[in-house]
Amino acid sequence: MEAPDWWRDAVVYQIYPVSFKDTTGNGKGDLNGITSKLPYLKDLGVEVVWLSPVYASPMVDMGYDISNYREIHPDFGTMEDWERMTKEAHRIGLKVVMDLVVNHTSDQHEWFQDAKDGGSKKDWYIWRGKNKEGKEPNNWGAIFGGSCWEWNDKLKEYYLHVFDVSQPDLNWENPAVRDAVWDVMRFWLDKGCDGFRMDVINCISKTPGFPDAPVADPQSMYQYGLIHRFNGPKVADYLLEMHDKVLQYYPNAFTVGEAPGVKSAEQALPLVQNGVPLQMLFHFEHMYIDHQPGKTCFNYKPWKLTELKDVLGKFMEFNEANGGWDSLYLENHDQPRIISRWANDGKYRDASAKMLAIFHATGRGTLFIYQGQEIGMANPAAWTFDELRDLEEIQYYKAIEASNGDTKDALKQIQRIGRDNSRTPMQWSADTNAGFTSGTPWIKVNQDYEEWNVEAEQASSDISVLKFWKSLLTIRKDHNGLVRGAFQMIDYENQSVYAYTRRNATEQYLVVCSFSEEEVKWVCPVNRGNLLLGNYPSQEIEEDDTLTLRPYEGRLYYLPAMQHL
């Protein structure tokens, strides 16, 4: 019988369906493509497959603008294809998790089509009149640029859209909206869905009264940032109602909520304590360490390793002490490839991919792998404007262009941090278009696919990144202390080495990861024991307490005797 907290031990694999595997030749991935690759995922060592949205959608924001929650977008196939995929996943022991996008809908959804004409569902969305100056109700800026408010001339009111103008926010204050969401959840759970990743779920409650946000950048017409738009006072209430009305009746359902702007484990705890109302959250604090405060992701800030330790270490230690649980992720459909971001995707690409794998898979929490991460996929070398597909990137570029800014620098920033970097097709082989499609891909294929692909890494006589990930996931499954054990940071002040221990009543492990391109001498404060896994072919086990760590070296040790640090 499945344990009620099975999700703590799970390895989750995120699929971005349009870029995973195409079986029709139209250049877009589909559900049958996912079905064809389920054995690959099972062999890799994952237990849960999470699909980014496959619902009916105009695809303005790549499916995060849903026009019908109960239909499949034709590009992905049919409902019968989804059912066949889910049945096959269950047959081989995999669970299927869907994306739940219920902060907003598409403006093409029948609910909003009724609302914008003043129909019975008008109060399903958020409307406000002009302020005293005859302008927008406040200065809130939309995530994708411009104001959060869009004027409707028929109703003589603005509607709120925290994201794009095509994504009007639902009014969660209205019980009818919540009931409609509960119905959507039951629909999918009853069809065999095993749970949900909940998109921007802490956005469903806004600050009462809709006050202006503080203006950090006087040059900006509208204030960027998350204040007042996220983390309103009723987030926990709404999610507890979700638990009471839906989730408690599906006790094995998987739940993770995306929560940008949740800045600490203390703030997150009411949403995840002891697995209620949600099991875990995706916070973004480790993703923000290279962002300038108060500005968009395209404004780079140099960062230090201690900042990363301060975020991840504190989350893990606090949650352990207070009944919380973490999600472990370094990549997803909204973030660039982590090798290009935090390490070296050139000379030390192989070492970087493996070190980051050790770092990623040995933290305290449920492990999430994003498609292609397991083969060391990196950002493309460059983008032209015509190659861009992401709404956020395109609007950023156009804003720079309109202000006579440096568009070359805009493309440079997009290459560094843009969302299209993680959305290039999955690299299955060295065949045309990386074996992703026989047609023209909807987005360009990364130029390095002939070397970095699944087929080549499976056939390699060396320990490829893919083989390394398989070994790491096997070790993780066989050593429960690496999953549920206590987490303790060591040598916090070190700016090159990220080191910590994991331990339970019978096992203790030491993880040592160098984030430096230079050789590092590191004094190890514990008897490091036996090497379980390392990312260099030949390991030099020093005789004294000083380790010589090569560029981006990662080591996982099993400590034979319990030690008190």
TrEMBL record:
Pfam families, A to Z: Alpha-amylase (PF00128), Malt_amylase_C (PF16657)
Spans through the membrane: none
Record SUPFAM superfamilies: (Trans)glycosidases, Glycosyl hydrolase domain
SMART domains: Aamy
Domain Glycosyl hydrolase family 13 catalytic: 14-423
Lineage: superkingdom: Eukaryota
GO molecular function, one term: sucrose alpha-glucosidase activity
UniProt-listed GO biological process terms: maltose catabolic process; sucrose catabolic process
Alphabetical UniProt keywords: Glycosidase, Hydrolase, Maltose metabolism
Alphabetized PANTHER family for the sequence: ALPHA-AMYLASE FAMILY MEMBER (PTHR10357), GLYCOSYL HYDROLASE FAMILY 13 CATALYTIC DOMAIN-CONTAINING PROTEIN (PTHR10357:SF232)
Family to which this protein belongs: Belongs to the glycosyl hydrolase 13 family.
Protein name as catalogued: Trehalose-6-phosphate hydrolase
